[in-house]
Amino acid sequence: MQFSDVIRKQRAIRDFAHQFIDRTTIERLIGSAILAPSAMNLQPWAFAVVADRQKVDEFAKRAKEWLLTTLSTTSYEPSLRHMLENPNFSVFYHAPALVLVMAKASGTQAAEDCCLAAENFMLAARDEGLGTCWIGFARPWLDLPSIKAELGLPEQYHVVAPIIFGYPKEWPESPGRNPAEIHWLAENTSDYVRGADTVSAGHGGTTKKLSADRGDAGPVKLTVHCRCKKNFEVEYLNYQSILGSQVKCCQCGREKIITQINAEDVWPADARARCA
Ligand SMILES: Cc1cc2nc3c(=O)[nH]c(=O)nc-3n(C[C@H](O)[C@H](O)[C@H](O)COP(=O)(O)O)c2cc1C
After folding, report:
1. pLDDT at 205 over 50
2. Quick one: which atom of ligand 1 is closest to the CA of 177?
3. What's the pLDDT score for residue 64?
4. Rounded-to-integer distance, Cα 137 and Cα 71, Å
5. Cis before residue 179, ω within 30 degrees of 0?
6. By CB neighbour count within 10 A (0-12 exposed, 13-18 middle, 19+ buried), where does 180 fall?
7. Which of 44, 61, 191, 224 has the smallest CB count inside 10 Å?
8. What pLDDT does residue 95 have?
9. What is the pLDDT of residues 83-116, one digit of tens each?
């Protein structure tokens, strides 16, 4: 998958197919996780893997029981009690596998480093067609000294990211994201032009949403609204070739790279262009 697709199509998966995940695959994902950067390159992470649905279910049951008894003492919303009291609710959603990303040191920035490793793991999984879901809900239980002792994990290790994973039954729609709140504190506009260039995507001039999953074919026409007020059209053979492409304004000669599409899985009516 293209990297931009991996990011856009990453979803929290809570419904898994009954499909085994082999050790080589899991080791490959962990291999991607440890490519994450870390403060002073300390790489303060360790991983624990449960590749057995029954065991994951057993942990889910115990974590749920513990959460029900301790909920009032934690920072979780009391409304979560309702969810926990549902007999059909499993904190690990009957996933076939669970990985714990653990911080080996409590000082420095070990937790931050582990979060980056966790994200790498999830994106690498998405790239391979595997679904993941970070289950923060279960973290306090997994981090109990008694549980770590039972699992044979060093007591000083700190569970940062419990991530369930497996082959998804389906890829759900994105729940969406709020627009980014950006505070531009400084910007040198002499070598980077931002903002006014926008692009409309459409088939034959009419704006149309193009879904990567539907495999919409081209030709796709883009209308580029240049900062110099000139609107010009560019035609592509297919939509896959749009992102990263370079276009040139026929009036002012500015070159732009189509860099950003402002929607999940869909080419929206307006994208952003950046002057090259
Ligand atoms: C730190 C963290 C903790 C999370 N904890 C839970 C959890 O306990 N249970 C759960 O079902 N999903 C959990 N999620 C998944 C989020 O609910 C999910 O990523 C979010 O709703 C956005 O959905 P998306 O990832 O499909 O875009 C967690 C995600 C993060 C990053």
Report:
1. no
2. 27
3. 96
4. 11
5. no
6. exposed
7. 191
8. 98
9. 999 999 999 999 999 999 999 987 779 999 999 9
H-type helices in the chain, by residue range? 3-9, 23-33, 53-70, 80-85, 110-127, 139-142, 145-151
pLDDT on residue 33? 98
Ligand 1 pocket test: pick from 135, 139, 141, 160 the residue with the most ligand atoms within 8 Å of its Cβ.
Answer: 135
Which residue, by CA, sits nearest to atom 28 of ligand 1? 134
Cβ atoms of residues 59 and 98 within 8 Å: yes
Ligand 1 pocket mutation, candidates 64, 89, 133, 163, criterion most atoms within 8 A of CB: 133
CA-proximal residue: ligand 1, atom 19 (nearest): 12
Per-chain mean pLDDT for the chain? 82
Q: Is the C-beta atom of 160 inside 6 A of ligand 1?
A: no
Q: pTM of the prediction?
A: 0.74
Domains and CATH numbers, the chain: 3-166 (3.40.109.10), 198-275 (no CATH)
Rounded to whole angstroms, the Cα distance separating 111 from 125 reads 21
Distances, alpha carbon 22 to alpha carbons 6, 46, 51, 125, 255, in Å: 22, 19, 8, 13, 48
Are 161 and 100 in contact, with CB atoms under 8 Å apart? yes
pLDDT at 155 over 80: yes
Residue nearest to atom 30 of ligand 1 (CA): 134
Q: Which residue CA neighbors atom 11 of ligand 1 most closely?
A: 135
Looking at residue 227, what is its pLDDT? 73
Q: Residue 93: left if φ>0, alpha if ψ -120 to 50, beta else—which one?
A: left
State the distance from the centre of ligand 1 to the C-alpha of 135, rounded, in angstroms. Answer: 7
Closest Cα to atom 31 of ligand 1: 134
Instruction: Give me ligand 1 centre to Cα 12, in Å.
Output: 6
* Chain position carrying tokens 């981090």: 143
